[in-house]
Amino acid sequence: MVIVATIAILTAAGCGPEKTPPPEVDGLPVVVAAGDIAACATEGDEATARLVGGIEGTVLTLGDNAYPDGSGENFAECYDPSWGQFKVRTKPSPGNHEYETAGASGYFDYFDYFGDAAGDPDEGYYSYDLGSWHIVALNSNCGEGEIRCGPGSPQVQWLEEDLAANDEEACTLAYFHHPLFTSGEYRPGIERVEHLWEILYAAGVDVVLNGHDHNYQRFAPQDPQGRADPEDGIRQFVVGTGAGASIRSRIRSPTRRSTTTTPTACSNSSCTRRDTSGSSFPWRVKASLTQVLPSATEPLVEGRRGVY
């Protein structure tokens, strides 16, 4: 799979030696992902949309899709003119700004806009397959309405059952808005998603994509306590670079919670290059034609069951 987090392309040449993409898949499946996307007050989302427009593949939104309130008006006037052109190939997830309007009506406007692609309006979580990858979209707005993320909650029960039913998949990727680990403004991370992480880790999930912090960060494989685990850990990316909000610099590294952070996080200037040894296949950071997104290259990143 090729994962394009609007600024990052990760090439995965087979995630699990016993698994190959089914014959109907023409080449490696591609996903394009970012969160914190559209605002009428900026042109950042137009810049990232030009970047996404040049890449074929499934588009994942990592929450905070339309600023400021996730209302129907915000989607119609801000999101639709830019990222709306990818609606037919978009698999969204909701962020906290989808809940900003009174009574969370913006959250339901989110479902009205994306339709069946967003899953059940009472849930906001769902899963699907791309080639040999199993993809899980979660709702990390724990405590909003009926959404819960703790033991025994409907979302947690569904997640455990879904991962168990897809245990034979070569690779699994999960995405949701709030990061458990971050070196940005929300450092050290959002604790309420820790139980979701525990379930993902126990099931051998390979990659987690998040937004919320308006920058780009990459973490080495780790467990839910932030301890390095190169064999069985999850590699987390923070990709709040949809450009609906100003790109923020990372505060410092590592975070108090994580001992494994190896992020490249940027403001409006170029990113620095960080190295990760023992890699076999390339992945690189994509840049738009404006200074909204940084420009950089990243070295190869090897995962426990493949190369990302």
Structural account:
There is one protein chain. Helix 4 (154-165) runs parallel beside helix 5 (194-202). A 6-stranded mixed beta sheet has the order 5-4-3-1-2-12, with no helix packed on it. The chain has a 6-stranded mixed beta sheet with strand order 6-7-8-9-11-10, with no helix packed on it. The longest helix is centred in the middle third of the chain and has 12 residues, at 154-165. It is built from 5 helices and 14 strands. The protein has 308 residues and is of the alpha/beta class.
Comma- or semicolon-separated keywords:
single chain, 308 residues, alpha/beta, six-stranded mixed beta sheet, 16% helix, 17% strand, globular, disordered C terminus
Please summarize the sheet with the most strands: 6 strands, mixed
Please report the total strand number as a whole number: 14
The percent of residues in helical segments reads 10-25%
User: Given the C-alpha coordinates, what overall shape results?
Assistant: globular
Total number of helical segments? Answer: 5
**Overall mean pLDDT:** 76
| Helix-strand topology string | EEEHEHEHEEHEHEEEEEE
Low-confidence stretches: 7-14, 16-25, 262-308
How big is the Rg?
A: 18 Å
Alpha-carbon distance between the termini? 8 Å
Strand line-up across the major sheet: 5-4-3-1-2-12
Beta-strand proportion: 15-25%
Task: Give the class from helix and strand content and strand pairing.
Answer: alpha/beta
